[in-house]
């Protein structure tokens, strides 16, 4: 018995040491100062906006594979109506929405350019959904099993995610140098050091500490690689998968990423951008202000979940320190995101920028079941992918969880929701006068 106790005690000590070792291992990225100097001197067109055409932006929210599928379907649905992809000048993404944005940047559609390209758009939608919203992440799980120390470190688990994103049919090890220069991409994260948004981008945002005439208040600006009064894009050598994975590093399960500045040996610690603003809209408004644009048309695809007040107040207890730790982040996001976006909208108005914002939220259509078909009206055979039970399509839609993978049924539902919302927004006017839309708060960080 004494021997058994010693074995158990030794096992417990080793387990504690393993956990401590895992938690103490950050995802550590070294950024040479030479890379920053190269970003200063890059002769490519990295200006804040292509001012030779109207400012048209897309915002892809966070929300795991659900948000990735919703934004992908929304993108294709816009192309099928009257917003060709070539008209889009800026794309801002958060967390799961970054999967769609990065795939689009490196694998743009060739046969889906307008309403007449039905077959091409169908093919591209199937192609992008297969990559950004898969039914499983077996390869990711396998990498975790091959490197068990990663399981114990939230930061090191990001390595497995970056490797999965870097597979040959997705990002394939590409860097910011490989992003197209005719469109601006913003991958939103948050600084754990200051509480401000931090943006990876092939565009230039002003130094957050700059004090130039007409500049935004420092509290409303995003951090970026622009420092010391110097405007920089993200270094061309920076891994695209790192930016996308960091944007999706939801605490406490993933992250943070630690970036060392060679110049002064300091570190930046970055995580999921949805902590402070989950839609990506605020960054587009900030970019419009920085560009000098006088007008901006912005389409927001919000695939994030809002807090369910009815379910919450019906529960005797909520486990904010165990199974529902993300609720604390949700609360911070709702309050901070609403106020930052509101403040930026007011600043834009004061600067004479006309904003036309169209927001599409899958939860809006799910809470209006009469606008969403029942199973009998579902596309032929589609219902067979769903174990419907007593659920309607609308109730099933609301129950889609926030994960890196998504079932075929849920992917069909979220795709149909995006298509229905875009179709309704661009439908010809009818004889009756519809009631004005009620503004909805942005989604939380899930």
UniProtKB/TrEMBL annotation:
<protein>
    <submittedName>
        <fullName>Patatin-like phospholipase</fullName>
    </submittedName>
</protein>
<dbReference type="InterPro" id="IPR002641">
    <property type="entry name" value="PNPLA_dom"/>
</dbReference>
<feature type="domain" description="PNPLA">
    <location>
        <begin position="58"/>
        <end position="283"/>
    </location>
</feature>
<keyword id="KW-0443">Lipid metabolism</keyword>
<dbReference type="InterPro" id="IPR016035">
    <property type="entry name" value="Acyl_Trfase/lysoPLipase"/>
</dbReference>
<dbReference type="GO" id="GO:0006629">
    <property type="term" value="P:lipid metabolic process"/>
</dbReference>
<dbReference type="Pfam" id="PF01734">
    <property type="entry name" value="Patatin"/>
</dbReference>
<feature type="region of interest" description="Disordered">
    <location>
        <begin position="427"/>
        <end position="446"/>
    </location>
</feature>
<feature type="compositionally biased region" description="Low complexity">
    <location>
        <begin position="427"/>
        <end position="437"/>
    </location>
</feature>
